[in-house]
């Protein structure tokens, strides 16, 4: 180099700049220059969000509306469940040869009366009082027939009908 040419030396010094609470970064800086804030030139990272900081009033309102909607849908579907109940019972005895099964109706499970519902061969449901002697006798006969049919693995017409009624595979 000649004397007419002047040497210009730029010295670079690293200065730590705080970007976030957790990390620091080394940013080069010219020596002799004014100390200026370079935070305005750097893109600031958003603070770490917590659950409470993330829930705005709009989000809370939307959540409450969804909960109310789901509750209303649940309540409506519960009201549409139809319960088939005996409104009254007949004290007149039912002939055993027409009965192919029975079900018990308990008071309080959506029904006002306790009853025994006998199902006939023509799939007619007849309600009878559970405390009557002829009802207890008919139930006993049906239970004995059920035991015999289980031993025979439900072979035969009577057993087939009894199985369909007693185990819910209703034959129409």
From TrEMBL:
<dbReference type="InterPro" id="IPR039809">
    <property type="entry name" value="Chemokine_b/g/d"/>
</dbReference>
<keyword id="KW-0964">Secreted</keyword>
<keyword id="KW-0202">Cytokine</keyword>
<dbReference type="InterPro" id="IPR036048">
    <property type="entry name" value="Interleukin_8-like_sf"/>
</dbReference>
<keyword id="KW-1015">Disulfide bond</keyword>
<dbReference type="GO" id="GO:0008009">
    <property type="term" value="F:chemokine activity"/>
</dbReference>
<protein>
    <recommendedName>
        <fullName>C-C motif chemokine</fullName>
    </recommendedName>
</protein>
<feature type="domain" description="Chemokine interleukin-8-like">
    <location>
        <begin position="82"/>
        <end position="142"/>
    </location>
</feature>
<dbReference type="Pfam" id="PF00048">
    <property type="entry name" value="IL8"/>
</dbReference>
<comment type="similarity">
    <text>Belongs to the intercrine beta (chemokine CC) family.</text>
</comment>
<dbReference type="InterPro" id="IPR001811">
    <property type="entry name" value="Chemokine_IL8-like_dom"/>
</dbReference>
<dbReference type="GO" id="GO:0006955">
    <property type="term" value="P:immune response"/>
</dbReference>
<keyword id="KW-0145">Chemotaxis</keyword>
<dbReference type="GO" id="GO:0005615">
    <property type="term" value="C:extracellular space"/>
</dbReference>
<dbReference type="InterPro" id="IPR000827">
    <property type="entry name" value="Chemokine_CC_CS"/>
</dbReference>
<feature type="region of interest" description="Disordered">
    <location>
        <begin position="21"/>
        <end position="50"/>
    </location>
</feature>
